[in-house]
Design goal:
alpha+beta, elongated, 444 residues, 3-stranded antiparallel sheet, binds zinc ion, binds manganese (II) ion
Length: 444
């Protein structure tokens, strides 16, 4: 008998997303934070090497940016927060502890509605910490060795922790894509998963009664968007088989292997108490007043989902168009400016959107003015003459007595139908604005 028929197992998924901030300097020292592809150990100092006697000085910009993310995700910004030491041993962590935030993170209790879906995700907390160094396993002179590169050690890292609100790997992926868009939009990180600027851990368990299970399995090493769904789906299936076979699941950390597509146990999950957290004695607590938080809030631009709504509601674009044009701030800004230029020539936003979506111009090279002049040139070529338009308008009025009557009786929207008929008859070559005007004049 198949036990899965007896009760339905529902995935319960929570995410922890780490994002490297693109600040100039590291979190607690003045070494450059941009470590990508730099010669090993070329950007280090006593502080980020964890040498005795060095003192950490927090990066103000990193703190502000963390709060910025918190505000964008509707979090409560804590008036009082602090850094803590999180102890564990690993060669890439020279101090023997990571400076992180434990019980008083900068931001908590947020809520994020995924755009393009009704899904709401609760944000448990957002905190700031330092990145670790990197271990490189390689062969030197025929010998297998592990090398250490501390360029990444001490780079500011924002960690966003969600509540276990995802029910599928697709939802989790959608969230990640939108978090990536957000951090790029805010200009605080390149959010590149392949480069490791954005890293993901997924907590996966299965529930048979709608409640949060007593265990969770943490999946690490999901290093690209391609594997987000794969890793989570694999883990859901693995757990399902165990439960259906009458087995029990335990709290553990598993690593995803991109080559084999499976997860393997790394260690039985440690608990918070294993880390021996205590307040970082070298950094005073962070205290924020209302005014300081409001000042950071004033730096928030219009957010991607607000811009999507603008495109949909004010510019009357489809959801697909709105999502595409708001996929990056650069593209959205370009489109908004092009719409402004186009409006001087009575070219509607939709026409500008069509041009961008279908022709995909290189927005780095083609100015908004040039784009609009291209639209105009094309328009001049294809539009039919006024006299020909006049004839079609007459014909449409003659053949659509009902719509004409409706309009005259006060049903204003009937005019749209007539415009549509003219455009159709003209084979799409009628100027919509002119058609509208001609119809109005004739129906007066
Ligand atoms: Zn340093
Ligand atoms: Mn972390």
């Amino acid at each position: 008998m198949n036990r899965s028929k007896a009760f339905k197992l529902e995935p319960v998924i929570g995410l922890e997303v780490h994002i490297e901030l693109a600040t100039n300097s590291k979190m607690f020292c003045l070494c450059p934070a941009d470590h990508f592809a730099k010669p090993p150990n070329s950007q280090v100092c006593p502080t980020c090497l964890g040498l005795p006697g060095s003192l950490p000085v927090p990066n103000k910009k990193a703190i502000e940016w963390t709060i910025l993310v918190g505000l964008a995700l509707n979090c409560k910004i804590e008036r009082f927060s602090k850094f803590d030491r999180k102890h564990y041993f690993y060669p890439d962590l020279p101090k023997g502890y990571q400076i992180s935030q434990y019980d008083q993170p900068l931001c908590s209790n947020g809520l994020f509605q995924l755009s393009g879906s009704g899904k709401k995700v609760r944000i448990r907390r957002i905190h700031l910490e330092e990145d670790t160094g990197k271990m490189i396993h390689t062969i030197v002179k025929g010998e297998r060795v592990s090398l250490l590169d501390f360029n990444r050690s001490g780079v500011p890292l924002v960690e966003i922790v969600t509540e276990p609100d995802f029910k599928s790997s697709q939802e989790a992926k959608l969230f990640l894509i939108q978090i990536q868009r957000l951090v790029r939009w805010l200009g605080i990180s390149d959010g590149d998963m392949e480069k490791g600027s954005m890293r993901l851990e997924a907590n996966v368990s299965l529930s048979s009664n709608g409640e949060i299970p007593a265990y969770k399995v943490e999946i690490k090493n999901i290093n690209s968007f391609k594997f987000v769904e794969k890793a989570i789906d694999y883990e859901i299936e693995r757990q399902k088989k165990i439960i259906e076979g009458g087995g029990e699941l335990r709290q553990e950390t598993r690593g995803f292997n991109e080559k084999t597509g499976i997860t393997l146990s790394q260690r039985v999950k440690e608990e918070a108490k294993d880390y021996r957290y205590f307040p970082e004695p070298d950094i005073p607590p962070l205290v924020f007043g209302e005014r300081e938080i409001e000042e950071i809030r004033s730096k928030l631009p219009q957010l991607p989902w607000q811009i999507e709504n603008l495109f949909r509601d004010t510019f009357r674009l489809s959801i697909q168009y709105s999502q595409f044009l708001a996929s990056s701030k650069k593209l959205a800004d370009y489109f908004i400016k092009a719409v402004k230029v186009a409006s001087q020539y009575n070219i509607p936003p939709k026409t500008v959107a069509d041009e961008i979506v279908n022709k995909k111009p290189d927005i780095e090279k083609i100015s908004e003015q040039l784009l609009v002049s291209r639209i105009r040139k094309r328009g001049e070529k294809v539009l039919i003459s006024d006299s020909r338009l006049e004839n079609i308008v007459k014909k449409v009025i003659f053949e659509n007595a009902k719509a004409v009557n409706d309009y005259r009786k006060g049903k204003v929207s009937a005019i749209q139908y007539l415009v549509g008929q003219v455009v159709k008859l003209s084979g799409g070559k009628a100027d919509v604005r002119k058609t509208h005007k001609m119809l109005l004049e004739r129906l007066k």
